[in-house]
Amino acid sequence: MKNLLIFSTALVLLCCVNQIFAQQTINGTIMHDNLEREYILYVPANYDASNSVPLVINFHGYTSNAQQQMFYGDFRPIADQAGFLVVQPQGTLDNTGTTHFNVGWGQSTVDDVGFTSALLDTLAAEYAINMERVYSTGMSNGGFMSYLLACELSDRIAAIASVTGSMTPNFIPCTPNHPMPVLEIHGTEDETVPYEGAIFATDIDEVVQHWVKFNNCDEEPMFEEIEDFNTSDMSTVEHYVYENGDNDVNTELFKIIGGGHTWPGTAFAFGSTNQDINASEEVWKFFDRYDINGLRETTSASTFVPRSVVEAFPNPSSGVVNLKFENAAYRNYTIYSLVGEPILEGISNADQAAIDLSEYPQGVYIFKSENKVIRLVKF
C-alpha cells in the first residue's frame, strides 16, 4: 500500500518538536521467537510507581515506524495530563522488505500477537501498570492490528480503537472473551484502506455492525454531527454511537466525510486531514470510560459531552493569529519555535485571544494548549 505518512516536512518537524515533549522516552528491545523486537515507551513526568496506571499501545501503519507514529498519532500531551503510559511497538520487515504487523496479509509468519503479549509482560514487570486498563489503537495497519488483538488477545485488552484501519476479510470467527468497546475513525475518501472495503479490508460499516452485534448494542445509533470548525480541511465529521451493549460498552464510529488516509487533528497535516476533531483526544476519551470488565464505575454511560476545542485562525498568517477556546478547562498556551524554544506564553481569561507573530521570521511554529497541539504557519 502506498505510504502516506513519510514526507520531508514531517520529518523535519518530528525531529524538532520532540524537544517540546521532553519527558521520559525509552527505546527498548525484547526477544520474541528468536527476533529482537523494538519499542518506544513514553512515561509522563507525573508517573508514580506507587500507583498503577493505564497503558495505551499505539501501533504504526504499514511502511511506517514507531518513531513516526509517536509523533503523527501523538498521545504524549494527553498522557501528561491523564497520567498513562504509551508504548509504540516497532513492526518487522515482511517478504517485500516493508515494515508491517502481521494481520494475515501476504506470507508473513511473524507472531505479532505473541510479541504484544510478551511486551505487556515485560512492561508490567518494570512499571506499575493497571492490567485491567490496557488499550490498543493504531494507524492503518496498526488499526488492523488492534482488531486482531480484540479477537485473539481479548483477555489482556480492555478496548480498541482503529484510525483508518479495518479488519481482514477472514476475521470470522472472532470471539473475544468479554464485550469489547470498539471505536473506528475513518475517512470516506480513504484511497489506501477504502471505506467500502477491498480485497484485504472489510467494509467499515460491516466492521461496525459486527461489533454492534457481538456487544449486543442498540441497533439504532445515537447520531451527532460535529460542528465544522475548520472549513479549510475539505471534510466534516459524523459521530455514530451504538449504546447499551453488554457490560455497558459502546461501539462507535467517527465517519470523516471527505477525509483521506490521515490521522484527524494531527499537527502534521497533509491531504484531506480533518481538524474538527483530534483523533488522539477522541480515542483516549473513549478508552478512559472502560476497563476490561466494561464501563468503569467512575464514568458515565453517556458519550455526548462538550468537546475541548481550540481553533487558530487565520492559519497560515502574516502576523496576528486569533485563538478561539470552546469547552476548554485551561486557556494557558505556549508557542514554540521549531527548535523547541518557547517564544510566547499566555493565558486567556476569555473565550478568545490573539497572538502576534509579526516580529518573528517566516516558518512553522507549534502552538500547545493543555492537550491541543496546532501547527502554525507564518508567511
Mind explaining what this structure looks like?
The chain is α+β, with helices and mostly antiparallel strands. The protein has 2 domains: 8-307, Rossmann fold, CATH 3.40.50; 310-378, Immunoglobulin-like (Sandwich). It is 19% helix and 32% strand. It is built from 7 helices and 21 strands. It has helices at residues 8-17, 66-72, 76-82, 112-126, 141-152, 204-215, 279-287, and strands spanning 24-32, 35-43, 53-59, 85-89, 92-93, 99-100, 129-139, 159-163, 182-187, 222-226, 236-242, 251-257, 290-291, 294-295, 309-313, 320-326, 332-336, 342-347, 352-356, 363-369, 372-378. The strands form 5 sheets. Strands 1-2-4-3-7-8-9-12-11-10 form a 10-stranded mixed beta sheet, sandwiched between helices. A 4-stranded antiparallel beta sheet has the order 18-17-20-21, with no helix packed on it. A 3-stranded antiparallel beta sheet has the order 15-16-19, with no helix packed on it. The longest helix has 15 residues, at 112-126. The protein is globular and about 60 Å long.
